[in-house]
Write a structure and sequence with these properties.
501 residues, 2 domains, 18 helices, single chain, Nucleotidyltransferase, domain 5, Carb_kinase_FGGY, carbohydrate metabolism, transferase, seven-stranded mixed sheet
Amino acid sequence: MTDTSAQDLWVGIDLGTQGVRALAVTGDGRLLGRGSAPLAGHRDGDRHEQFPSDWWEGACAALREALRAVRPARVRGVAVCATSGTVLLTDAGGTPLTPALMYDDGRAAAEARTAQEAGADVWDALGYRIQPSWALAKLLWLVRRADGGAGALRGARVCHQADFVTTRLVGRPVPTDSSHALKTGYDLRGGGWPHAVHDELGLAALDFPAVVAPGSVLGTVCARAAAVTGLAEGTPVVAGMTDGCAAQLGSGAWDIGQWNSVLGTTLVLKGVTARPLTDPAGVLYNHRAADGNWLPGGASSVGAGALARAFPGADLARLDRAAAAHEPSGVLSYPLVSRGERFPFLAPDAEPFTLGTPAGDGDLHASLLQGVAHVERLCLAYVRQLGARIEGPVAFTGGATGSAYWNQLRADVLGRQAVVPEHADPALGMAVLAAHGVGPADGAGPAAWSDLRPMVRVRTTLDPRPEVSRRFDEPFVALVDAWERRGWLPAPTAAYAREHG
């Protein structure tokens, strides 16, 4: 039996929608500590906000729990991931000046159109299309509604969700990482903020932070943070990535052609390519990996959040057993968590629907599970349409992997082999990134990715059941037809999905 008492530990923190999670992991992938704390959001129609102070308090609580049984001095680095597009404005010291608008807050639709028009040439060159969920549109929304006008926010600091926590860990404002900065309009190819667009939008008076690559050391844990987190003072704090990128690191899908599907409250698909994928529709965007490869992908608004809304407080394991009798379901569901779709098509007015009358709770639950899997299948078809390679198994991560039934169903609907890591959590990806950024104890620089492979362990390999997979072809095409009839799914994508999906 391996003695873990003297091994170095790496800590990852994931700021999710419903909670904060922290993991303490050894270099060979042994989980020695896990902690979590709930987060409460404020939803009202298109509005979705959280209190930034809750992020910090949740991170402190999750860290204390994760480190309860280990010596803090063993932790050699920590990194933080968060939801993509969540943003607020703070003063120079990090105190919030505005609400924190969450990743799926949909109130900035008009501002997204304005930002898209103001920087159309820049965004076209970068392959971006500014959406209401993007942080740049939300910043414009916040500035337009500030008491006293834009002048009242002069010098206000742009702060992404992860930045709020890293600032408190280090004890001073720190650079943001290029992953969280992408939806604020950062140019990942040229390496800079689009200042001319900021001028055009009236955002030039804001303080946009310096940007560093994921894996860069931002500083070390300060005395105040050490006292409330359980981390040792002086522990390196490493620049993280968005939760989708973090989950991909935690999945082990690091090589060109590999893809990770993250299913939690919503669905995120991300893969690895040698060059950015060009998407004329602008619904797919390209993050930059710490190793220089590109991470194209997108975030859908379907996900497990639809289950909680349909069956609040229900025994989902019991519903899974009931759903097994409905393959396929007698109805078709499009299980959006909130209004508007972001990927694999852009439809701000899209709404969830169910076509037909379910035979009971088991049938309805089955239709929701299958609906998410059908969207996942369309996502993979879309990236193939754009020229991406998909090789080997798809890695499944995110909270929904706790359902063994849903995992197998998704493999069946996709018609592809899938793997589920032992620890399907974006926090694991941040532990991996912390280990990469800090590097070996001899100070020789960042750790080689090949040396970090043991940190990701596979729990389950799932093979699609051919006889079951065939049953889902017709419902998939029927959903494609329904999306196209509503004007949400472009005809060329629908045609490709019917033939190649």
